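Appendix C: a fully annotated inverse folding record. The material below is reproduced so that readers can follow the format used throughout the book. The structure is listed first as C-alpha cells, followed by the designed sequence.
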C-alpha cells in the first residue's frame, strides 16, 4: 500500500537549501557558502580558512538526517558540514568548497560515514585538496551492528555513533592538537562505538509516496538511516524486549563489533529517527541504562537522549554504545557552541530517586497519634458510614463522570476521583 506523503514544504527540490537558510537564521553563529544549489555548505561564522589556527573538522553527507550534520557545526565540534541532496552524497565540488573555506595551516580532518558515495566523493575531494597544498586526513566511521560483519559488501554502515566521533574530534581540535593527533583520536573513537536501530515505519522522501512495507503490528530491526531494509522484520514487541535484543546484538562477544567487556565504562546515546516522541525515547533510555548496568556489568558514564541523526519522518530509535575512558569523557564534556549538541550529565550523579517529603504535621506526629480510635463515638460511626457511602457512590459513577467530562474537558474526571475513592477505602480497611 502506498499513498502521497504529507510534507510542510515548498518545492521538493529546494528542501535542503531552504533548510540551510532557516538554520542560519536561527543560529547567528552559522553561515553558508553562497553557491546554491550546487554548493550546500554550512560553516562556522568565526572560522575563515585564511586565518583559522586550529585543525578544521568537516563532516557531512546526504541530507534528511537533521540535525546531523549541519546542526553540529560550532566552536568545539564541526567547523563545516557539507550537505548533499536528500539521501545523496554531496558533490566533490561542494566538499572542496567547504575545505577551502575553513582550512588553515593546521589542516583539515574529514569525518565520513561508511557509504560508497560518501567515501568516493570525499576521497576524491581530499586528493584534489592535497594537490592544492592542503593538509588532509580522513576517518571513516562504520558503527553499524545490525548485520554479521562478513555479510556487509561495503562494510559496516555509518550511523548515529558518528555524532560521538564528531564531538571528540572537534574538542581535540579546539584544544589545539595537531592534525595527526586529532585524526588519531577520531579513529580510535570510531573503533569504540556500535549502533543498532529499530523502526516502526519507513520514511517518506519529499515529493514521493509513502510505502508501508512493514504493515500493521510489525517492526524492523537493524535498518539503515536511508530506509534500507534491515536485518529482520518482526512482530511489534514491548520496548523492554526491543532494548534487550539491540543490546545483545551490539555487545555480542561472537561478532565482536565493539571492544566492550564487563567492568568497562561506556557512554550511551538513544537517538530518535525523526518521528519518535520524546516520551518514547525517554522510556527507552530508562530501560537501557539498568540493563547495561545489571545484565552486562557496565558503568554508564553519560546518557544522551534525543534526535541526533534522523531519517526524515521515520518512527523508531537507535542505540549507540561507546567504550569510554577519561580522555574521551573530557572531549564529550568539553564546551561547544554547536546548536544541537546536548548537555549531558557530567561527573558524579546524585541519586536518581529520593523519598517524597512529608508535610511537617505528618513527619512530627507519631503513627499512634494519627491512628483511628479503638472505640468510635456515635457521631464517629455515622461519619465513617457517610464517608464509605460517598466513596462507593463515586466508584460506581466513574464511567459516567468520565463521559460527562469528555464533553467539556479531557475525559479523566471519573478516573481521577475513582483513584481517590479507592485510596480512601483502602485506608479505612486498615482500621476495620
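Designed amino acids, in order:
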Amino acid at each position: 500500500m502506498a499513498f502521497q506523503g504529507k510534507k510542510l514544504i515548498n518545492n521538493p527540490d529546494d528542501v535542503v537549501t531552504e533548510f540551510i537558510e532557516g538554520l542560519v537564521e536561527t543560529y547567528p553563529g552559522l553561515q553558508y557558502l553562497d553557491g546554491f544549489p550546487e554548493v550546500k555548505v554550512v560553516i562556522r561564522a568565526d572560522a575563515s580558512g585564511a586565518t583559522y589556527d586550529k585543525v578544521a573538522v568537516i563532516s557531512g553527507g546526504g541530507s534528511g538526517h537533521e540535525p546531523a550534520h549541519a546542526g553540529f557545526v560550532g566552536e568545539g565540534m564541526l567547523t563545516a558540514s557539507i550537505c548533499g541532496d536528500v539521501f545523496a552524497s554531496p558533490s566533490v565540488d561542494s566538499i572542496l568548497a567547504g575545505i577551502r573555506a575553513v582550512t588553515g595551516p593546521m589542516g583539515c580532518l574529514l569525518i565520513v560515514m561508511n557509504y560508497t558515495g560518501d567515501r568516493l566523493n570525499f576521497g576524491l575531494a581530499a586528493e584534489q585538496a592535497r594537490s592544492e597544498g592542503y593538509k588532509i586526513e580522513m576517518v571513516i566511521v562504520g558503527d553499524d551492528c545490525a548485520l554479521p560483519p562478513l555479510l556487509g559488501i561495503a562494510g559496516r554502515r555509518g550511523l548515529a555513533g558518528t555524532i560521538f566521533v564528531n564531538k571528540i574530534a572537534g574538542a581535540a581540535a579546539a584544544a589545539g592538537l595537531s592534525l595527526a593527533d586529532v585524526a588519531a583520536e577520531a579513529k580510535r573513537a570510531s573503533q569504540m562505538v556500535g549502533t543498532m536501530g529499530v523502526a516502526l515505519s519507513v520514511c517518506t522522501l519529499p515529493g514521493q509516496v509513502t510505502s508501508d512495507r512493514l504493515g500493521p503490528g510489525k517492526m524492523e530491526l537493524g535498518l539503515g538511516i536511508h530506509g534500507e531494509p534491515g536485518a529482520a522484520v518482526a512482530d511489534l514487541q514491548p520496548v523492554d524486549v526491543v532494548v534487550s535484543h539491540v543490546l545483545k546484538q551490539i555487545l555480542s562477544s561472537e561478532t565482536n563489533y565493539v571492544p566492550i567487556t564487563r567492568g568497562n565504562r561506556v557512554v550511551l546515546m538513544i537517538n530518535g529517527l525523526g518521528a519518535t516522541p520524546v516520551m518514547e525515547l525517554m522510556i527507552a533510555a530508562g530501560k537501557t541504562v539498568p540493563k547495561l548496568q545489571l545484565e552486562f556489568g557496565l558503568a554508564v558514564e553519560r546518557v544522551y537522549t534525543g534526535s541526533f541523526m534522523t531519517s526524515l519522518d521515520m518512527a523508531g530509535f537507535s542505540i549507540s554504545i561507546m567504550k569510554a575512558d577519561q580522555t574521551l569523557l573530557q572531549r564529550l564534556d568539553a564546551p561547544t557552541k554547536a546548536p544541537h549538541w546536548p548537555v549531558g550529565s557530567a561527573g558524579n550523579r546524585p541519586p536518581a530517586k529520593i523519598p517524597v517529603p512529608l508535610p511537617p504535621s505528618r513527619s512530627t506526629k507519631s503513627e499512634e497519634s494519627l491512628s483511628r480510635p479503638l472505640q468510635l463515638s456515635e457521631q464517629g460511626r455515622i461519619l465513617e458510614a457517610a464517608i464509605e457511602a460517598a466513596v462507593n457512590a463515586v466508584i460506581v459513577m466513574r464511567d459516567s463522570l468520565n463521559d460527562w467530562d469528555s464533553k467539556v474537558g479531557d475525559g479523566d474526571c471519573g478516573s481521577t476521583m475513582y483513584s481517590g475513592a479507592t485510596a480512601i477505602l483502602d485506608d479505612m480497611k486498615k482500621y476495620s
